[in-house]
Automatic annotation (TrEMBL):
It comes from Denticeps clupeoides (denticle herring). InterPro entries: I/LWEQ_dom_sf (IPR035964), ILWEQ_dom (IPR002558), Talin1/2_VBS2 (IPR057346), Talin_cent (IPR015224), Talin_cent_sf (IPR036476). The keyword Cytoplasm applies. One of its GO terms (biological process) is cell-cell adhesion. The keyword Zinc-finger does not apply. The lineage of its organism: Eukaryota, Metazoa, Chordata, Craniata, Vertebrata. It is found in: Cytoplasm. This is TLN2. Residues 16-139 form the Talin central domain. Pfam families: I_LWEQ, Talin_middle, Talin_VBS2. Residues 148-249 form the I/LWEQ domain.
Amino acid sequence: MVCVLGDRNNFTILNKVWIQNKVDESKHEIHSQVDAITAGTASVVNLTAGDPTDTDYTAVGCAITTISSNLTEMSKGVKLLAALMEDEVGGGQSLMGAARTLAGAVSDLLKAVEPSSGEPRQTVLTAAGSIGQASGDLLRQMGEGETDEKFQDILMNLAKAVANAAAMLVLKAKNVAQVAEDPVLQNRVIAAATQCALSTSQLVACTKVVSPTISSPVCQEQLVEAGRLVERSVEGCVKACQAATDEDELLKHVGVAAGTVSQALSDLLQHVRHYASCGEPIGRYDQATDTIMTVTESIFTSMGDAGEHGFLAQATSDLVNAMRSDAEADTDVDSSKKLWLETMACGLVRLVLICDTLITASLPLSRGNGNAVAEVSLATS
């Protein structure tokens, strides 16, 4: 009788452990899928900016496919997780409700971006913002909300500051348009100012979308891309104003307003980079990273200069050693950051190994490409 009771207790413990492991696994997978959905949504917003005739619909289609496929897989994962959470009061039902809300928001976006829909641009931006809100709610229902409210409030306020600064630039540009004598140049100023206002609205929408999943590098990239669109529109507005008038005072006001937009945009992106770097001073690895990116691009363009490959190996060694030094030296850093640094270091080593394989295959053995692998292996061992 004691043995039977003990076996039952052991079975109960093992069952609970299995359930908890499955819950953790499901949460991780759903979180990754939500990351992909928000990044894909931000990509759609960025890709559909501007004149519809210039839109890369192939890229838009790829982004939509990413959203749809991840939404399908996420729905399956949410059903499983809800079943595993059924012992929690209302846990499973709340999770399913949040998932349905997200699915509905995605459906609204897909309808709005159809070329034949004729929906105004603001409808697309509103639908995208709803996806961001629904994604955040879903993650919070799972206990996976990754950013605190203070960070999100600051992020949104910084995005709105860019929009407010852009609104002032639009006003200054309209002043230029009013004195422009050439109707063609006048219309160009108006069009450029309108595009500037639209690009900042897109930036705010993109910020809403990626805010809940801002730790994802892909989401950060989309926010940076939205920032680039703002930069281009500001530059276009300034150039249009300069071509339309020679009045120094008006152009001075336009220049000051454009500078304010640029500074507000810089503050926003700096805030994101600071969060992404786990609060560490930005620029810790910038030099080595820039070298790696530059040399890698050069290598794949020329398919293999042995000297360039050596530079890549050295820069990668420097970056890997810096990361591992930080991970080992700072006892106050939490385990998640240590793991991130170690993972990045391993990934960089694999990058050089891949490059070496590709280049060795395309160059004579006498050029000694294997030395690069040896350099990285020694530096990172």
